Structures are given as C-alpha cells and as structure tokens.
Amino acid sequence: MNERHPTSQPSADDSDAPVTVVVLSAGVSDPSSTRLLADRVAQRTLDVLRDSGTSANVSVIDLAPIASEIAQSLVAGFPREKVQAALERLAEADAIVASTPVYKAGISGLFKSFADLIDDDLLIAKPVILAATGGTARHAMVVDDQLRPLFAFLRAIPVPTSLYAAPEDWGSPELGKRITRAAIELALLLRSGATRDIADDNWQAYQHQFAGNAIRAERSTGDIDFSTDLMRLAAGGQSA
C-alpha cells in the first residue's frame, strides 16, 4: 500500500478518503458577495466531486473576523493563534477556493496581508479556484493579473478558468457555466492524482522554510540530513 502524505491530494484510488475543499474568503460585508460567490463555487465543486463518486466536505476560513490578528502577525513576524489555526487548515486542504473583493483595481489588502503570512511551501501543488467580486466589470482581469501570479508564486496549481462577478453577473447563466467549468477542472485535477504526484515526487527538489507551517516542513534538527555536501560545507567540513 502506498503511503498518503498529509499534503497529498487524493486520486481515484483513495475512495475512502474524503476530499477537503477549503474556502478562503476576504469578504467583509454581511452578507458578503465575495463569500456568496465562494460558497456557490464550493457547492458546485462538491456536487461535481460527489457525482463522480468522490466524497467531499467544505471548510471555510473567513478573514474578516481575524483581520486584527493578521495585522499583528505581520508586525510581529510570526502568526498569532487564530492566524496559525487558519494556516493549519490550509495545510490540511486538498483543494482551495480563494475569493477576494476588488478595491481600487486591486485585490483586497486583507487577502494579500494573509497571503504574505503563508509559507512558500504550504500550498505546493494544491489545486485552487480563483475568484473575485467587484463593483464593475472593468476589474475582471484582476483575477488573472494579480491572484494567478500570487498563487503561482506559492507553487499552487490554479485551474484554467478564473471567476469574476460584477453586480450584473449574478443573474447571468454565463457565471453559472464558468463556475461549473472551474469545478470540473478542479475535480479532474484531484481525481487524476497529478497534484499528489507533483507534491510527493518533487518535495525534496523544492526550497523549504525550516519550522514552517507546511505539514512536511522540517521542524527540528532531527529532520535535517547533515550528510549532504551543502550541510558538510556549512559545518566547516569538505564536500565528498
């Protein structure tokens, strides 16, 4: 039996392991159109996964209630308790729905501040649906101009279809079609096992943060291979 690492995504063979989809929402109003879009995407994703025989559940991280802790974490240089809990939930996720409002032609400062606290190796090979809401269709490209490069830097795998909803889009069948397309893309990535294989097969090839939030991060000296040429040189020895 192959070992399933904690950061791995399930394949079609992992039928007994439910998929966890984590919604990351930076909406601040109540009700929030950003959260409403994320919930709609998450529900469609669950439907697609379950229709294909994959059990799944959804967990939600709302950033607005922990906004002050996010700011304090940035200043302190380490995550506060509630922020740490949110990061740990992201680390456990098999897939993510990331949703942010657009302000002044840019993604939410709250969303970006939280993203700045994510270790570079926390989201390696995790599939992500990118979504945003705004007051005008003129901001539609913000998703691909700003969210997509951000998650690419974090080495996640954004699905090809990005989502944006302006006020006039909510009653449009086209938004529903795009949501379904993105959900299918996410489900196919998960069921193919490709994201799991990328994370597992390439883990040692990535640069990692010591004692970081990633589940497989090295947290003690016992996790470090001191036999490598680089570590011998760092300790004042010679390479083999």
Q: State Rg.
A: 19 Å
The span between the termini is 36 Å
Count of helical regions: 8
Instruction: Spell out the helices and strands N to C.
Output: EHEHHEEHEHEEHHH
What's the count of strands?
Answer: 7
Mean pLDDT: 85
- Largest sheet, described in full? 7 strands, mixed
Question: Could you list the spans in which at least 5 consecutive residues all have pLDDT below 50?
Answer: 1-14, 217-221
How would the global form be characterised?
globular
* Strand coverage percent: 15-25%
| Sheet/helix structural class | alpha/beta
Percent of residues in helical segments? Answer: 25-40%
Features of this protein?
240 residues, alpha/beta, seven-stranded mixed sheet, 8 helices, 7 strands
Q: What does this 3D model show about the protein?
A:
With about 240 residues, the protein is an alpha/beta fold. Helix content is about 40%, strand content about 15%. The protein contains 8 helices and 7 strands; from the N terminus they run βαβααββαβαββααα. The chain has helices at about 35-50, 65-75, 80-90, 110-115, 140-155, 175-190, 195-200, 230-235, and strands at about 20-25, 55-60, 95-105, 105, 125-135, 155-160, 165. Strands 1, 2, 3, 4, 5, 6 and 7 form a 7-stranded mixed beta sheet that branches. Helix 1 (about 35-50) crosses helix 6 (about 175-190). The radius of gyration is 19 Å and the shape is globular. The protein starts with 18 loop residues before the first strand and ends in a 6-residue tail after the last helix. The relative contact order is 0.17. Residues about 1-15 and about 215-220 have low confidence and may be disordered.
